[in-house]
Amino acid sequence: MHTTVGIIGGGPAGLLLARLLHNAGIDTVTLESRDRAHVENRQRAGILEQGTVDVLRSAGVGDRMDREGLVHDGIELRFDGRSHRVDFPSLTGGRTVMVYAQTEVVKDLIALRSEDAGPLLFGARALAVEDADTDRPLIRYLHEGREQTLSCDYVVGCDGFHGVARQAIPTSIRTTYERTYPYSWLGILAEAAPVYDELIYAHSPRGFALASMRTPTVSRLYLQVDNGTDPADWPDERIWDELDARLALSGDAGVQLTRGAVSGKAVLPMRSSVTEPMRYGRVFLAGDAAHIVPPTGAKGLNLAVSDVTVLARALVQAHGSDSAELLDAYSDTCLRRVWRAEQFSYEMTTTLHHDPAHSPFETRLQLSRLDRLAVSGHAAAELAENYTGLPIDY
Ligand code: APR
Ligand code: PHB
Q1: Could you identify the atom of ligand 1 that is nearest to the CA of residue 164?
Q2: Distance from Cα 289 to the centre of ligand 1, integer Å
Q3: Residues recognised as catalytic
């Protein structure tokens, strides 16, 4: 089988890239190792930057997002007995974010895909990418019990942190920068009204807590826990009690922790990772295949969207002309924005979490940083600009 663009991975990066290329008349084949039900039900992030919302709308996949998504104008920070709201529109010239789960974006992309675009093969596991530095790169993959090959003009690895595409870049030119954090997140979904009508990020001596949501009746809540925590050690009541203690809502007007049936209980490790370059020959990396951010800054999905938006433009240029100018600039263009998001995610994470190695000195530095965000419009604007998302070709 031959295709113009072979895509490994049917997560948000792979699915959106296929949609953008289909809209430009470029044929693709997407290989996804898991089945559709697994891909559509993986609990992941829930915040769409303004740029992501715009890309989804222009790609023709934003209708349900616009009907069901929740537009948010800010977030609340809680620390040292105080609370401070960071208002996005006044600090960014009108930008906001959309609360709309990644699982819903994936469902919308798959539903649209089944109507009119190139093959999306579930249960198709890429084994290797070969001939990356030729004009006919090859994907070897396993599907329906048989090893098969897909010859391509271009290959894009959208296969996440554990994918194979990264191996196509020779170790002699591939560098991975990484950091593992000394804590994880315990995340739950709850059939319970959200704590507040905006997200609450809470710094507390007991550890970080985040109150988010999925719908007006479903909450998404996170607690900082030790690495290696077993979710079974956190029965529902213990989770609710700890959220209560860390969010310290104590009767604030309009803010209440409603308890409800808990599902999707999982422990998420926290790491930062960037692989450079994001291209070798005719093989490109996009999304988690190239970079990982700790979830505190809600950047993972949005970086995947910005990567494939930049790459789609470059592939359209190369496909329609002799110019490879944008393809040649792809890696550097994306990495500039990736490193900015890595720094923002690192700063949000290290400012808000209790690090067991911290002395009281470092904790005072955290509180000083949070106080600065509360009193300085400049500091708050820097947070708001990064949170709502820098321009895609930043
Ligand atoms: N062959 C085929 N598919 C593969 C292979 C393989 N060898 N390895 C991994 N995959 C698939 C995974 O099953 C997954 O569906 O690639 C997909 C990668 O999707 P994601 O991990 O979601 O990565 P990405 O599309 O870049 O989206 C990034 O997803 O994980 C979150 O926090 C992350 O929000 C961010 C977003
Ligand atoms: C979520 O709703 O899942 C979410 C929101 C904000 C974050 C991380 C996760 O920073």
Answers
A1: 7
A2: 7
A3: 72, 201, 295, 299, 387
Homologous superfamily assigned to 181-269: D-Amino Acid Oxidase, subunit A, domain 2 (3.30.9.10)
Q: For the beta carbon of residue 282, count every other beta carbon within 10 angstroms.
A: 24
Question: Which residue stretches of the chain are H helix?
Answer: 12-23, 36-41, 50-58, 63-68, 88-92, 102-116, 236-247, 300-320, 325-352, 360-375, 377-388
> Considering only CA atoms, which residue is closest to atom 9 of ligand 1?
159
Q: What is the mean pLDDT of each run of 10 residues along the chain (394 residues)?
A: 96 97 96 97 93 97 97 97 96 97 96 79 98 97 97 98 96 97 97 92 97 94 98 97 91 81 94 98 98 98 98 96 95 97 98 95 98 98 97 79
Q: Are the CB atoms for 258 and 221 separated by under 8 Å?
A: no
Q: In 10 A of CB 331, how many CB atoms?
A: 20
pTM over 0.90, yes/no: yes
* Residue owning the nearest CA to atom 7 of ligand 2: 298
The residue ranges of every structural domain in the chain are 2-50+101-178+271-354, 181-269
pLDDT tens per residue, range 15-39: 999 999 999 999 999 999 999 999 9
At the topology level of CATH, where does 2-50+101-178+271-354 sit?
FAD/NAD(P)-binding domain (3.50.50)
